[in-house]
Structures are given as structure tokens and as C-alpha cells.
Amino acid sequence: MDAALIADAQKLPPGTPGLLYPRSRSGVRAVRLAARIGSLGVLRKLTSRIGHVARTDQPLPPMNLERNVR
Q1: Is 63 part of any domain?
Q2: What pLDDT score was predicted for residue 28?
Q3: Do residues 22 and 30 touch, judged by C-beta distance below 8 A?
Q4: Burial letters 21-56, b for 16+ CB under 10 A, else e
Q5: Which domain holds residue 31?
Q6: What is the number of structural domains in the chain?
Q7: Can you tell me the distance from the alpha carbon of 36 to that of 54, in angstroms, rounded to the nearest whole number?
Q8: What is the per-residue pLDDT for 70?
Q9: Contact 51/1 with Cβ under 8 angstroms?
Q10: How far apart are CA 67 and CA 15, in angstroms?
């Protein structure tokens, strides 16, 4: 795989890990509550746009679809 593609895809805005992976019980509850609210039918379209896949002009590496069966 292309290391530059992986490094670029793994860049997160500052503070993101702390928000998405809380360490306290209250933080976990807050993330779960936000996920429940975001999954409501009314907000589903909006929240699906927030979690879009990164847009880039960089081509993806080829995929090997063969399975090793033993």
C-alpha cells in the first residue's frame, strides 16, 4: 500500500481523538447520546453528510480480490 495515502487518510483535526474516544463514563455517555440524536430520522441526512469519505484526486492502490483457500 501507498504509505502517503495511509498517512493522509489518518490525519485527524486537533482534539478529535479525545472527543470520539472518551476515557470517562460521562464522556462515553455523551458520545452515545450524540450518536442516538444523530441517528434520528430527522437528522440522519445531515449527519450522513458530516461523516463523508475524504475527497481526493489521488488514485487508490489496486485491490487483490483473490482469496487464499486452503
Answers
A1: no
A2: 92
A3: yes
A4: eeeeeeeeeeeeeeeeeeeeeeeeeeeeeeeeeeee
A5: 14-50
A6: 1
A7: 24
A8: 62
A9: no
A10: 39
C-alpha cell at position 2: 501507498
Backbone dihedral region for residue 15 (phi beyond 0: left; psi -120 to 50: alpha; all else: beta): left
**For the chain, which residues score pLDDT lower than 50?**
none
Any long-range contacts for 8-16 (C-beta under 8 Å, 24+ apart)?
8/56, 8/58, 9/54
Residue 30 inside a domain? The answer is yes
Within a domain: 60: no
Task: Please check whether residue 20 lies inside any domain of the structure.
Answer: yes
Please, are residues 1 and 61 in contact by the beta-carbon 8 Å criterion?
Answer: yes
* Residue-level pLDDT at 54: 63
> What does the pLDDT read at residue 32?
92
Q: Distance between CA 48 and CA 46 in Å, rounded?
A: 5
